[in-house]
Structure formats: C-alpha cells, structure tokens
Amino acid sequence: MVIYMYYYMQPTTYWKNIAVLSGLLLAAGMVHAQKKKPVYQPEGDTSLQEVLITATKFPERKRNVVQKVDIVSKDFIKRVNTQNTGDLLQATGNVFVQKSQQGGSSPVIRGFEASRVLLVLDGVRMNNAIYRSGHLQNVITIDQNMLERVEVLYGPGSTLYGSDALGGVVAFKTKDPTLSKMAGKTVVSGNGFVRYTSANQEKTGHADVSIGGQKWGAIFSATYSDFDDLRMGNNYPDKYPNFGRRSTFVQRINGVDSIVKNNDDRIQKFSGYQQWDILGKLLYRPNDKQSHTLNIQLSNSSDVPRYDRLQDVRNGNLRFAEWYYGPQKRNLFSYTFDAQLKGFFNQLRITASYQDIEESRYQRDRNNLNRQNRIERVKVGGLYADLKKNWGRHELHTGIDLQLNDVRSRAFTLNINTGATGSLDTRYPEKNTYNSLGIYAQHLFKFTNDKWVLNDGIRVQSTWLNSTVIDNSTAFRPFTNLKQNPVGVSGNLGLVFIPVKNLRFNAGVATGFRSPNIDDLTKIFESSTASRQLVVPNPDIRPEKTISPELGINVKAGKWLRFDASVYYTWFKDAIVKDKFQVNGQDSTVYNGVKYQTLAAQNNAKAGLYGFNAAVTLVPAQGWELYSTINLTKGTYTRPNGTEVPLDHIPPVYGRTSLRYSSTVWSAEVWAMYNGWKKIKDYNPDGEDNAQYATADGMPSWATLNIRGQYQLSPKLSLQAALENITDRNYRVFASGFSAPGRSIIVSLRASF
Q1: End-to-end CA distance of the chain
Q2: Which of 66, 163, 271, 629 qualifies as a cystine partner to 508, CB 3.0-4.6 A?
C-alpha cells in the first residue's frame, strides 16, 4: 500500500522540506514522550472480543458478525476534524466520496452509490422515495460534530434493513444525554469549538450542552458553518496544465448576462454556501429496564450552487447563468422506547419517526430571462418494532418495518425581470406515494467450542408505489396513473471461524434487493449538456437484486500488529441502468428547444462486481501507530446484445496511509490520501461517471501529503492545527465536477466543561 502511494505521487520540490518537517515533528514527540506517559488510541478496533456494534439493530460483538464492519469512533471524528460528514467518511480511507459541488458528498461502497447505499440515522432510514441513482448530497445534512459513532456495514444489508442496502449500510449514532449516577445530583457538561480553514475561508462554530439527573436528561447542540468559494490546488499534472481552471463565469451586469474573466482561475467561483444544524434529545429512564428517547433534528442551508453545471458549455460558451439547489431542509422527529422483557423475548425496541424533507432546483440559461423552478416535498413516516431473544447459544433478532412516503412535486418558470410565472414540466408526477412493509428474522448460533458462529437470516418486504399525473400533456408522461406492488425476498448465510483468540476467518453470502422508487420510474432529467442526453420515465422497470459472497480474515499479533482483509464478488441481476430508450418510436426528442438523445432506467443488464479491501496497523512502540488501507473495485455489465460495458460508480484504486504519535497532552500525524487512474475507457458511456468533467484521458491519479497536530492547553481546552494538501496538488476525485481543496491551513480551538 505504501509502495502504491509512492508510485502515484509526483515528486516536487516540497517533499524534502516536508520530510524534514515531519521528522522534526515526530522526533519532538519522542522527546515529549519522556516527560509524559503516552496514551495509545488505535486507528481501528483492536479487539474482536469486546467491540459491540449497533448496526445490527441490537448490540452485538463484532467477532460474531460475518459482514465486514468498520467503526468510526467519536475520538476519530474529533481528531480528523472534517468540514462535513461526507469528508469524515472519506477520511477513513475505506469509503469513496464523489462531489458535484462544495455542498455535496456522495458515498460509494463496493461500487454502489446513492439509492443503493442505505443511510440510517439513530435507527431511522434516511433513504426515501426520491433518492436517485446518480449522486446524492443528503449525507452532509447530518452534523458530524454530534455523532457518537458511525458504523459502516459492507455488502448487502437487506435482511435487516430492506430495500436499498445493496452496497452496504452507513449507520450514524448521535450522542445521548449523560445521566447522573447519584440521586439528587445534576450532571452538566458541554463542548464547543470554533474552526477556520483557509482553502474556502471556512468559519464554523459549534456548541452542545448535556444536562442530566438520575432519571431525566437532555442534550442540545447547534452548529453553523460559512463556506466561501473554494480554492483548488495550483500544482497541476504536467500533461493537463489547465485542468479544472475556472477561467470565466457568468455575471449579470446592467441587466445582461455577461461572461466575465476570473481574476484568479483557481477560485471556484460560485461554490460557497452556509449551513446550520440543530439537535435536541430528551431521555427518560425510569429504571434500568426501560428508557424513552425523544429526538429532534433540524438541518437547513442557504442556496447551494451546482458547481459542475455552472461549467457546462453550449456552442462554445458557458451555458448557464444560474444553476443551484435551494436550501437543503431536513427535519426529523422520532420517539424510541427500549425495554428489557421477562417473557419469551429479552429486549424490545420501538421507534416511531417522522421526516420532512424539501429539495429544490433552480436553473436559467444565459440570456434567458425565465428561471426554471422545481420543488419537491417528501414526508416520511416510519415505524420500527424490533425484538431480541437469547436462549442457550442462540440469538434471534426479529422485527417489522413500516415506511410511508408522500411526495409532492411542483414546477414553474419565473421571469426574473417581470416576476411573471409560466408552466413547466415537473421533475416527478405531481402526487406520489411510496410505502413498504417488511418483516425479518436474523439468527446467530455459537457452537459449543466457541470457535464457530453461524449467521443466517431472511426478510420479506412488499412495496406499494402510486404516482398520479395531473398534467399528462408531455409526451414523456403519457400515463395518468402508475402503480407497482413488488415483493422482495432477501437473506444471508455465513460462518465465522476463530481457531485462536486473535485469528478470525469469515465466509458468507448475502442477497440484496432494491425496489424501484419514484425517481427510478418517473423522473424527467437533463443528464448531460455535453452529450445532450435526456432521461425520461420508464414505468416498466422491476426490482434489482444482488447475490454477494464474501471472504475475510482478521489477524492480531500481540499489541503491535493487526491485519484485516476481505474479498467479495457481487452478481447483479436485473440491474437498473440508464440506456438508450425510444419515446413514440423515436430515440431522440426536442426538449427546451434542443434535440436530445433519450435515455431511461431499464432492467436490461446483468452485471458483476468484485474487489478487495486490506488494512494493516503497526504499533512499533507505545503511542506510535502506522496505519494503511487500500481498496479495489471492478465492475462491468452486459447489454442484451451481448456487448460488455463498464459499470458506472466504480472508483479507481484508493486508500490512506498515516503515521501517528499520541501522548497525554500532545499528538501529531502525517498522512496521505491517494487515488489511482480512472482511464476514459473504463468510464460508463451513459451513466453517472461524468466524463465531461475529466480530462480527455480520464481522471488522473493523485496523492496528497498532510500533517496535523493537537495540544492540550489545559484539561478543558485544546488547540488543533493542520496543513493539508501540502504540495498544493490540483486534482478531482473520480466522477466529480468539482476540484478538491488546494494547500490549506486548518485551525480549531476546542473547549469543554
């Protein structure tokens, strides 16, 4: 892994200086270690025996679970100090993250993205009826500063969670109030920080406070972030000296959309935005057998410019004067009841939830006075009832899951001069419902010698979709009503073998399914300006299914070595892919006065994906740690005519390597992030790989070198500082239309009480 990283780094004059700086910094840590006793906090989980995971509905030891699971702790979250939750996932080195704009992050797990990766927040699924198959930014509406932990389940998770969990499940757990252990005593604690980042002039402030008695507790938090336009790197690959430069932009001057020269073409003009997040939890625990939790989360933002589209060119000039998302609004309300039972079942958890989400898109062509406005409102009700039974060497988790989605879509044009409105085709039909009911059972059996653990489970889920078209005058929606009622069955079977305490093997197979949602079936969407492709509805698609076997190994040698590796293959049946499509017998159509090739989501492919992940942790001395990880995924699908095409959403080789030192009051880390080449021949021609935002050869490989440190000024006050992308490398992550930050200084001051 380290050799791979070095191979893809391009030597610069910075490296010698950085090597010296890094050596001095880490040497200083050794001197400091003589004065302070080191505290070792490993990068990952070091004990398969003790770690409990919650992505399995109820807590379970990691050693007993066949699927690969990564746990992101609150200490890691604090240390990496990222600007949003998407950046946090990317910082692990095991989750790939795509960006179309600064206000976006779309996680990719094992070649699956967006609606094929399930996001779960405090036990409530975030995926809703309009989660698209392209790229999503919803994950950044989760405040990473209030997370207790994140658990990433790799591979199909449909047995426990139902539709959408094809690539995996990302389960987020927010912090709970701290209760007092003594009657009559109230415990009050809190945290806060301010952070500045030079690459985008980020200014973030966060504060949270927890108040707890013996039975009652509450926690409140608020975070506000202001991000300016982001500066990209200035160290360009030799062959692509102009890659990503923002040389011009459109500005309205004296009532005219004018193309203006950018004084600094490394500044990604019109990429800044603001965001604020609020969380409140109320906990009541009358005794040690029961608890009640009320959870309220509010997330909102300013308008978020769609930066990649603002680069689109038509007839040799910038096409759009405006293209932005409206405020990203996510409101969540949930109530959870936990109880230990005396009957047949030992534990019960019931969660009732309500989510209110609003998305909107606004675009206006240059020299066109009419702005297109499309607004979607999604209301989601959820009810989860989960039970756990322990008897002998058996564990049984079972439950039901009810989801009710209501989607309203509206659209209109607005003349920016006169305020006059006009009709416009909606992104989805005007009224939609998308409901599902699932029942599952997950079983574990621990053999008498404690060396073998059996995992098996099954789920049955039914989905009801209903779309009503009020205005069916458009040729793309000739229907007035669309209904579907697919039934999905999924399951898993696997074995864990632990011959000795610190050696573990796992082998299993799991199936996944995803029912088509409102976005799959009914969307009208201009996919690409460059290739002039228009996505139109196709009411005839069916659920897609996967079968995924997996093998893994975990080795721990004393306190100094840990090695984890997994290899997998996924058969993708009835895969929903965008492909050429005919409307009224024609494979092209005129839309907004321009002729487009028509595409639609179709079950016309069988696909195969395979890959591996490997990670190694070395602890040469107390307080020191070397960690490195690497990930590889490959995927293709076969069209009905027999031709083989690269599957979209497949990232290049990627990973992370870090060297870290920690003591009681002082820590430092040098790390590198790296991606391999994604050659243009490996891009999907009709999907979401966004070849138009890459070079003519594809997306170049890249690596960044970074350094950070933390000093405990007092028991309640700490200072964090980092220098990221030290070589000022100019790069884009695969499938992204937005360039990554250049050299950047990050400074944070944290306080607690």
Answers
A1: 41
A2: 66
Of 265, 373, 371, the residue nearest 320 (C-alpha): 371
CB 524 within 8 A of CB 532: no
- Contact between 532 and 692 under an 8 Å Cβ cutoff? The reply is no
Q: Please, what is the average pLDDT of the chain? A: 90
Residue 8: per-residue pLDDT: 38
Task: Determine whether 690 is exposed, middle or buried from the number of CB atoms within 10 Å of its CB (0-12, 13-18, 19+).
Answer: buried
**In angstroms, rounded to a whole number, what is the distance separating the alpha carbons of residues 385 and 350?**
4
User: Strand 124-125 relative to strand 147-154: parallel, antiparallel, unpaired?
Assistant: unpaired
With a CB cutoff of 8 Å and minimum separation 6, the contacts of 18 are 705, 707, 726, 727
Q: What residue type is 173 in one-letter code?
A: K
Tokens of 255: 């009532």
Cβ pair 164, 127 in contact under 8 A: yes
Report how far Cα 439 is from the mean position of its chain's Cα atoms: 26
Tell me what the mean pLDDT of segment 455-476 comes to. Answer: 87
Residue type, 29: G
Model confidence over 364-375: pLDDT tens digits?
A: 999 999 999 999
Closest CA to 165 of 78, 56, 27: 56
471 or 572: which carries more pLDDT confidence? 572
Q: What confidence category does residue 481 fall into, taking pLDDT thresholds of 50, 70 and 90?
A: confident
Amino acid at 370: N
Site of tokens 């950046």? 87
CB atoms within 10 A of CB 287: 9
Q: Please state the separation of Cα 471 from the chain's center in Å.
A: 35
The amino acid that residue 190 corresponds to is G
CB 139 within 8 A of CB 86: yes
**Taking the complete model, does pTM exceed 0.85, yes or no?**
yes
Lookup: tokens for 33: 């270690």
d(CA 374, CA 358): 11
Q: How far apart are CA 649 and CA 112, in angstroms?
A: 6
Place of tokens 């005058």: 473
Q: How far apart are CA 397 and CA 537, in angstroms?
A: 39
pLDDT digits (tens, 9 = 90+) for 422-433: 999 899 999 999
Which two structure tokens, joined as six digits, stand for 339? 């109880």
Give dist(CA 657, CA 630) in Å, integer: 9
Helical residues (DSSP H) of 114-249, grouped into ranges = 158-161
Per-residue pLDDT tens for 17-26? 434 344 434 4
Alpha helix segments (H runs only) across 318-371: none
- 3-state DSSP call for residue 12? coil
Residues with Cβ within 8 Å of residue 27, at least 6 apart in sequence: none
Burial of residue 31 (number of CB atoms within 10 Å: 0-12, 13-18, 19+): exposed
Radius of gyration over alpha carbons of the chain, in Å?
26
Instruction: Take residue 79 and report the two structure tokens written for it.
Output: 């240390």
Phi and psi based region of residue 21 (left: phi greater than 0; alpha: psi -120 to 50; beta: remaining): alpha
Tell me the CA distances in angstroms from 552 to 2, 167, 170, 615, one per residue in order: 22, 17, 20, 12
Phi and psi dihedrals of 636, rounded to 5? Answer: -140, 160
**Could you tell me the CA-to-CA distances from 291 to 83, 284, 338, 384 in Å, in that order?**
33, 6, 5, 16
Among candidates 630, 610, 605, 738, which has minimal Cα distance to 684?
A: 605
pLDDT of 7 over the 50 cut: no
Q: Are 134 and 83 in contact (CB under 8 A)?
A: no
Per the document, the length of the chain is: 753
Measured over all CA atoms, what is the biggest interatomic distance in the chain, rounded to whole angstroms? Answer: 81
Q: How far apart are CA 431 and CA 538, in angstroms?
A: 17
The neighbour count for residue 386, using CB atoms within 10 Å, is 22
Q: In whole angstroms, what is the distance from residue 172 CA to residue 220 CA? A: 17
